[in-house]
Amino acid sequence: MKTIGEVAAELGIEAHVLRHWEDVGALTVRRDGNGYRSYDDNALEQARTVLKLRRVGLSLPEVTAAMSPTKSAAQAVVRAKIAALESEVVQRQQAITFLQHTVECRHRYLDDCPDCATFVREA
């Protein structure tokens, strides 16, 4: 069994973050006889999972849903996040392509370049 401070130190986060995760329902922690949070192996693993899901971009409501006991509900949240990330990758790649062109463009002003104008008109 570990205290909130020990778990926070192990995960490299602040104790208030663990409290917040518990408050919003993303983490379940037992209390000892004095009302102190007591992290067993399951709670520690759950906290690690929450942290990993947060680090890959899920919001706390998404984390809670992704940790749902219903596998289909969890998968739906994860699939939606994958789709959003894939869309973001496409948008970022388009931004890189545009910026690379502007760096290499022979025109002094972007308005003078037909290729830059084409990039600008794209959604």
Automatic annotation (TrEMBL):
UniProt entry keywords in alphabetical sequence: DNA-binding
Residues annotated as domain HTH merR-type: 1-69
DNA-binding among keywords: yes
InterPro entries: DNA-bd_dom_put_sf, MerR-type_HTH_dom, MerR_fam
CDD domains: HTH_MerR-like
Superkingdom classification of source: Bacteria
Name of this protein: MerR family transcriptional regulator
